[in-house]
Design goal:
Blueprint (H helix, E strand, L loop, with lengths): L1 E4 L6 E5 L7 H15 L4 H17 L1 H12 L3 H27 L2 E3 L7 E9 L2 E5 L7 H12 L3 E5 L5 H13 L7 E3 L4 H10 L2 E5 L2 H14 L3 E4 L4 E5 L5 H13 L9 E7 H16 L13 H16 L3 E4 L12 E4 L6 H4 L6 E7 L2 H9 L6 E5 L3 H10 L4 E4 L20 E2 L4 H6 L2 E9 L14 H15 L1 H7 L9
Parallel strand pairs: 5-6, 5-8, 6-7, 8-9, 10-11, 10-15, 11-14, 13-14, 15-16
Antiparallel strand pairs: 1-2, 3-4, 4-18, 9-17, 12-13
Helix pairs in contact: 2-4, 3-4, 3-6, 4-5, 9-10
The chain binds nicotinamide-adenine-dinucleotide (NAD).
Length: 495
């Protein structure tokens, strides 16, 4: 049995049966049987379940929020905005757009004009979704929904810390009439997740870099596709012409929302020297005003609390100064903390902290800020604050990060039309838009011959005449004169 503990009170609130790894093959077999029926429905038919699930969520908001808050300790407003609101929007988005994203495409060949070409998006089969505890509803639904509407059967393995929300996801779809076993939730530890990798046809994993690498290695044994949404150490750059008030507000919210347990939270801040003092002053003032239980909750797991304490201790030992916070309180609470005099020798600037800590560093130029921002193994999100939006855009191009916000932070996750995901060790693959949907399919190319000749010129038997004819064709098609007249300027010969 999994014991579910409320991180705010420390009380056990439920016990949930574990599905051991040995039971996973049977669950996958059931899913495979359900897949046979589900894949035959049209996208429009599948979309109806998504709309119905959205209605269910709207009607059961309070119950969902209570479940999420009880398991994670997060403030109600955050469960409402970042989980319930997001999931409603996601369901509607994919219900509305999937037909367009998954429609068969006709490609017209530039060369073989005697062929018609179609690209068909086929579902993978049984998709395993392995999700973390920090946004248990959003990050489970975030993959379950596109995987389902693409025609897959899905098995969700929620985090061992948040199984109740995982079971709720299954219940929503059951209560709106989804055929049995098209979506199953299996609760358990890492070994249950690993067994999914051994038996499913594709995996969507959200979690830490360390586990993501294990999942990728295991998936490589079977060469199944894996989506990896991993950790981050997201930089915020504040240039000297920035709107200091907006930047300070963004910094405090971006670093501390969900008590800093957000993969794309602001984890380190670089501020140009002329506004550094004023920026730090405002950030500290704003942190002082935060209320426990309203804006700030506990860490969700004891392990997370240990990491935060270790990073702060390491920073202080190496010369960092605490301007506010810095200590654990009762239970799993840690005071929202602002650190200065930090540098890249400290864990707090290099490793994912995933807690309520804002380390701020003074920089003397844009180049220095950029160099420090890119000095990381991660590349999930970043933000730049400047009144010169063109400069912000320019800087964004040079930041090695899957997502960059200019004068904003985290908001990109709510823009479902745009791809979301990481570079470097922050992951592989993309959520949202057509990218988030098509990764749960394999594109199948179907070529249809148009004219039905008895044979193609390059089929057997080969002959001298045809060989000469093809060689002449190559000269005619690709000879320099033609290329210069009709082709792209970049293909002209170098002089
Ligand atoms: P985790 O890696 O410890 O666990 C994630 C999931 O993997 C859990 O369900 C766990 O049971 C399962 N698991 C553990 N070992 C496994 C194995 N060997 N094989 C298969 N599954 C296994 O991560 P966590 O602590 O739950 O989540 C926090 C991490 O997730 C942070 O690093 C955070 O940055 C990251 N995250 C990333 C994103 C993103 O979109 N990039 C979003 C949220 C969280």
């Amino acid at each position: 049995m999994l014991k579910v503990v409320n991180p705010t009170t420390g009380q056990q609130i439920a016990e949930v049966p574990i599905t051991p790894p040995q039971a996973v093959p049977e669950a996958v077999r059931r899913a495979r049987a359900a897949f046979q029926h589900w894949k035959k429905l049209s996208v429009a038919q599948r979309a109806r379940y998504l709309y119905a699930a959205r209605d269910w969520i709207v009607d059961h908001q309070d119950e969902i929020i209570e479940t999420i808050c009880a398991e994670t300790g997060k403030p109600r407003t955050e469960a409402l905005v970042a989980e319930v609101f997001y999931c409603c929007d996601l369901l509607g988005f994919y219900a509305k757009n999937s037909e367009r994203y998954l429609r068969d495409e006709i490609r017209s060949p530039h060369l073989l004009k005697t062929k018609r070409v179609f690209v068909i998006y086929q579902p993978l089969g049984v998709v395993g979704v392995i999700s973390p505890w920090n946004y248990p509803f959003t990050l489970a639904m975030g993959d379950v929904v596109p995987a389902l509407i693409a025609g897959n059967a899905v098995i969700l393995k929620p985090s061992e810390y948040t199984p109740l929300t995982g079971l709720l996801v299954e219940r929503i779809f059951r209560e709106v009439g989804l055929t049995e076993n098209v979506l199953q939730t299996l609760c358990g530890y890492g070994d249950t997740g690993a067994a999914l990798v051994d038996h499913c046809d594709g995996i969507a994993f959200t979690g830490s870099v360390a586990t993501g690498k294990k999942v990728a290695e295991r998936a490589a044994q079977r060469l199944i596709p894996v989506l990896l949404e991993l950790g981050g150490k997201d930089p915020m750059i504040v240039l000297k012409d920035a709107d200091i008030e907006r930047a300070a507000n963004a910094c405090v919210w971006g670093a501390l929302t969900n008590t800093g347990q957000t993969c794309m939270s602001v984890e380190r801040v670089y501020v140009e020297a002329p506004i550094y003092d004023e920026f730090v002053k405002r950030v500290v003032e704003k942190v002082k005003e935060l209320r426990t239980g309203v804006e700030i909750g506990p860490l969700t797991t004891p392990r997370q609390l240990e990491i935060v304490e270790r990073h702060v201790r390491d920073a202080v030992e190496k010369g960092a100064q605490i301007l506010i916070g810095g200590k654990r309180r009762e239970g799993l609470f840690f005071e929202p903390t602002v650190l200065v005099n930090v540098d890249h020798s400290m864990q707090i600037m290099r490793e994912e902290t995933f807690g309520p800590v804002i380390p701020i560093m003074r920089v003397n130029s844009i180049e220095e800020a950029l160099q420090l921002a890119n000095d990381s193994i991660y590349g999930l999100s970043a933000s730049v604050f400047t009144k010169d939006k063109r400069l912000g855009m320019q800087l964004a191009r040079h930041i090695e990060s899957g997502n960059v916000c200019v004068n904003d932070c985290i908001t990109n996750f709510a823009i479902l039309e745009a791809p979301y995901g990481g570079v470097k060790q922050s992951g592989l693959g993309r959520r949202h838009g057509e990218w988030g949907l098509r990764q749960f399919t394999w594109p199948q190319t179907v070529v249809v011959d148009r004219f039905g000749l008895k044979r193609e010129v390059f089929w057997y038997p080969y002959s001298e005449k045809v060989t000469r004819w093809i060689a002449r064709g190559i000269r005619w098609l690709y000879r320099r004169g033609l290329r210069e007249r009709f082709s792209h300027p970049h293909s002209r010969p170098l002089t």
